[in-house]
Amino acid sequence: MANVLIVGADQGIGYYLVERLLELENTVTVLDLQITAIDILKEKYQDTVLPIVADARNLSSIENGVHSAIEHFGDIDIAIHNACLCTFASEHDTGYEVYQNVMDVNYFGALRLTKTVLPHMRKAKKGRIIFTSSGVGVTGFSNISPYAASKGAIESLAKCLQIENEEYGISFHLFHPPLTNTKSASGISVPKEFKAEAKKVGYGLANHIWSKKFIICHSASQTAQIKFSYRHPLFIGKMMTQATKRALKTEK
Is the full-model pTM beyond 0.90? Predict the structure, then answer.
């Protein structure tokens, strides 16, 4: 059993990740702007889930959430940054402020959580921190550069901090879910049949949460796809963009 804290989990992959972790008898603290769905989940898991309203963009909000989690459940074993902001437009149609807002949630949100949790984990000489990444952060994709750039940034952050914190017994990891049928991905111009089911992905990630691998996927097939993407990033990015355009033309 582990004490898990997740930022961003009231819907989509994050929600099902929490649901499965609770089924597996872990304790879970959820920090999110909205906690409606988690509040309903709490009716079933009254003693093992702690929903807290918090904002990934606000340091004191995250600090208060982490403090409450430790006070309620004890040392945090796993901290996950899953909060996500994704926009869908070309660079030409995207202003500086959009890039800044996306980075504030996806990258700096991960950094805020990390810098808040790390002192506690270093003191305990154990723990793991997981960032939810994306294949487009590796390969690129059309009309999604703010999001893709933020995911590329947390990829590098996780690698650096993994090296820096090994001596403390702390490990860093990346969740790499496939393109999934969630609200945050609803604006991307990809047919639904290309998207995975959120429950299947969330449950799979929960089942592999103690994996020793740096990159954690929900399935063996997704692991193989991500490995290929790392080897041939731009080729995959261009191929997926072209395949999406062809599929959308066929739909019309």
Answer: yes
